[in-house]
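User: I'm putting together a small comparison set for a docking exercise, and I want a reference complex before I start. The sequence is below, and the ligand is 4'-deoxy-4'-aminopyridoxal-5'-phosphate. Could you produce the 3D structure with the ligand included, as structure tokens?
Assistant: Of course. I'll restate your input first, then give the structure tokens for the complex.
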Amino acid sequence: MASLTKKELKKKYQEYKEQGLALDMTRGKPGAEQLDLSLPMLDLVTSKDYKTVAGADTRNYGGLDGIPEMKAIFKDFLEVSSTDEIIVGGNSSLTLMHDTISHAITHGFPESKKPWGQQSKVKFLCPSPGYDRHFSICEHFGIEMITVPMTEKGPDMDVVEKLVAEDKSIKGIWVVPKYSNPTGFTCSKKTVKRLATMETAAKDFRIMWDNAYTVHHLSKDQDELANIFDACKEAGTENRVLIYGSFSKISFAGAGVAAMGASLENVNWMKGHLSMSTIGPDKLNQLRHTRFFKDFKGVEKHMKKHAKIIAPKFEAVIEILEKELGGKDIATWTQPKGGYFISLDVPKGCAKEVVKLAAEAGVKLTAAGATFPYKNDPKDENIRIAPTLPSMGEIKLAMRVLCVCVQLAAAK
Ligand code: PMP
């Protein structure tokens, strides 16, 4: 589209402002239509039928690491070799990640000389743009964050390898390996191998492998992710990786089931800590899930229904970005094959201004900077777009407003 003059842009912006819009593109929540897909699950565990395949009573205490049929689904989901390498948690993988770090701070991992909290400094590598809540966990526990560039192949491994080899206070790295939040990038086979085999100065180094979007493809054209657990086992570094995932964006975002996959030593370590905080997870919900999905193939089949609903929303975002900003040399954006986000880069120093302008016109976006450690995007250029929750009409309108804001900010 031909460039509008500043005056024309201002006029357009004013017109949007006068519409009194109230649109929300902030968080990656599933829309109601997606949640509806899993409703039949609620009728699968009844007052007459609440026992597992093996006959265990899911109403009672017990089963700290999950019911066998749920562990079987997560074995394939998280791609570990045995159900013994799985701990099924509650409804949130973020809780499992938070608790893992918390236990490391108070007690350390099996290889730690001292609990992380008793070491003078603990640092984490944070590929960015990345997931804001990972960074909040680090901030919460006083872990110093080091920003590492996120590339189309995953974290910039030249930077990662150099840092972890020379600094033993670097204890870990966050990785969303597939359809990453917010870029949609997937780690290449080489990146996976390098992560598994790199030399780390810290003997208790951990990769927080948050595979939140592993089955969240938008079409048949999908990214492939190499198996990091196998790569670590082959390299003799199997304690290095902790794998997380959940049903939050498969069944119900507030009532899914989460799990962690790891080596037996890590699993036993985690179970020891877990047993201090719970006598067992919600097995009724696990049973609902296993009866509904049956197996991992059932999960994959179900995700095709999600894709049908959300792929057109992603397409609409890309189409409007291309139409309104394409060829103007003021913005770049990702075109993910899966996940929940599109990452938009606007001219340096403009992201905050764009988000502010959009908010004033009634379009709420994730705060600029949120995708970086300490909420500080050094170039002030990244904006995360979350297209799943709003309706198609709302998305189109919000994107048009956003594109006017980008052009206005760029013209300043
Ligand atoms: N990891 C990533 C990368 C996410 O984007 C999200 C949700 N936005 C989560 C974890 C949260 O997962 P859960 O609901 O299982 O806590």
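The chain has two domains: 6-30+300-411, 42-294. Residues 42-294 form a domain with the Aspartate Aminotransferase; domain 2 fold (CATH 3.40.640.10).
User: Thanks, that's exactly what I needed.
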